Amino acid sequence: TRKESSAASDVYKRQVMAWSPLGGGKLMSNDGLLGKALAKIATIQNVDIAAVAVAWILAHPAKICPVMGTNNLERIAKISDAMHVKMDRETWFELYTASFNDGILPWRLP
Predict the structure, then answer these.
(1) In this predicted model, what pLDDT tens digit does every residue of 30-41 receive, in sequence order?
(2) pLDDT at 52
(3) In sequence order, what DSSP letters do the residues of 63-94 get, joined into one string?
(4) Local structure of 19: helix, strand or coil
(5) Cα separation, 63 vs 26, whole angstroms
(6) 10 and 3 in contact (C-beta within 8 Å)?
(7) Phi/psi at 63 (nearest 5 deg)?
(8) Phi and psi (nearest 5°) for 31?
(9) Cβ neighbours of residue 50 under 8 Å, at least 6 residues apart?
(10) Residue 19 pLDDT exceeds 70
(11) pLDDT tens sequence across 37-96
C-alpha cells in the first residue's frame, strides 16, 4: 500500500519513484477539480499543466522521484518548467484536496 511504501522508504532510506505520473496524458485532459486546479495554476505561472503536476509531485514530503514516460523533446521541455513552478503549501494542498474529490480520474494523486 501507499502507506507501507512510504514507511519502507523511510526505514531503508530509498526514494519512492512515480512511474508515468501524468497518467499517459490523461491528467492533461482532466476536466474535474484536479484538472481545473492544475490549469488555473499553470495559467497564473505561465507554464504547461504537466509542469505544475510534476512540481506538485516533487514538492511531496516523501521526496517522490517522477519518472516520465515520454521521448517527445517538446513535452520534456515543457515538463522541465516544473523546476520553476512556485509550489507553496497552500498551492500544494489545493491540488492535494482536488485530487481526493476529483470524481473523474480513476486514481488519486499522489
Answers:
(1) 777 888 999 999
(2) 96
(3) --EEE-----HHHHHHHHGGGG----HHHHHH
(4) strand
(5) 23
(6) no
(7) 60, 50
(8) -100, 10
(9) 22, 27, 28, 75, 78, 79, 82
(10) yes
(11) 999 999 999 999 999 999 999 999 888 999 988 888 998 999 999 999 999 999 999 998
Closest by Cα among 26, 30, 48 to 102: 30
Which cell is 35 given? 484538472
The three cell numbers of residue 9 are 522508504
From the number of C-beta atoms within 10 Å of its C-beta (0-12, 13-18, 19+), residue 16 rates as middle
Q: How many whole angstroms separate alpha carbon 101 and alpha carbon 19? A: 22
CA dihedral 109→18→26→69, nearest 10 degrees, is 170
Q: Which amino acid is at 73?
A: L
Single-letter residue type at 4 = E
